[in-house]
Amino acid sequence: MESHHHHTIPKVSNLNRAFIIGIVINTIYVIIELLAGIYYNSLSLISDAGHNLSDVAALALALLAFRLAKVKANDKFTYGYRKSTILVSLINSVVLFIAIGGIIWESIDRINHPVIMQGLPIAIVAGIGIIINFVSAMLFFKDKGKDLNVKGAYLHMMADAAVSLGVVISGVLISLFHIYWLDMATSLIIVLVIFYSTWNLFKDSLSLTLDGVPKGIDFNDVISEIKEVEGVIDVHHLHIWAISTSQNAITAHVLIHPNTGMEKLNKIKKKIKQELEHVNIQHVTLEFETEDDKCCDTNNFISEK
After folding, report:
1. Contact 182/235 with Cβ under 8 angstroms?
2. Which of 12, 233, 253, 275 minimizes the number of CB atoms within 10 Å of its CB?
3. Which residues sit opposite 250 in a β-bridge?
4. Which residues of the chain are in CATH 1.20.1510.10 domains?
5. CATH class name, domain 11-209
6. Considering the entire predicted model, what is its pTM?
C-alpha cells in the first residue's frame, strides 16, 4: 500500500526582479570599483571588486537555478530541474573560496611590492559600495529564510557591505596617517569575512548535494512524529532528502495493524502528512505494511536509536 503526497513549491515573492536588480547594480559597481582600484593602486578595492564580481556570478547562477526549478518534470528528469538550486548553491560557495585564494595571493605579492596610494578616493569608492551592497541585501531580506540560495545571496551582500566598511576605514586612516600597509591588511580581513560567510553555505549545500538530511530536520524526531500517530506500530526504511533548496522529501515503510480498514488507513496517511509538514517535509511517499506482509529486506538504511 502506498501513499504519494504532491505539493506545490513554496512561493518566493518577487525573486526574479530582486535578482535582476541585484545583478545590474552590482555589475555597474564592480566596473567602477575595479577601475578605481587600478587607478589608485588599491589592492583592497581590487580585491573587493573581485569579491563583488563573484557575487554577481552567484546571483546570475541562482537566478538561472530558480528558472530551471520551474521547468516541468519529464520522463528523463522526474523531479524536473529542482536539484539545480542545490548545485548552484554549492558552486556559489566554491567560487567564493576561489576568490579567497586570489586575494591571499595578491596580498602576499603586495608585501614584497608595497605601493603608495591615496586613501580618500579609496574611502569614497568603498562608501558607495556600502550603499550598493546594503540595498542589494534588502532585496532578499524578506525571503532569506525560505531558500538556501536566497539566504546565500543575502549573506553575500551583507558580507560585502561589512567589507566595504572596512575598506572605508582603512582608506581614511591611509589618508590621515599614510599607513599604506593597511590596504593589504584590509584585504586579508576581507578573506576572513568571505570565509566565515561562505563556510556554512558550503557545508549545507554539499550535504544536500549528497542527499543528506536537510538542516533543521532531526531524523529521530521525524520517526517519533510518525510513531505517535494513532494506528502506527512502527516505521522503518526512512529516507529524508532535499529535492531543492526549498523542498524536502521523505520515503518510509509504516507498520500498521492487520485489521486496519481503508477509512482508518486514509486518516493515518492524512495525519502523518500533516505532522511532517510541521517539520518542513512537503513531499511524502509512504508504504504501509502489516506484520503478515512486512518487508524482509534486512539492509535497512538506518533505524531508530
Report:
1. no
2. 233
3. 240, 284
4. 11-209
5. mainly alpha
6. 0.69
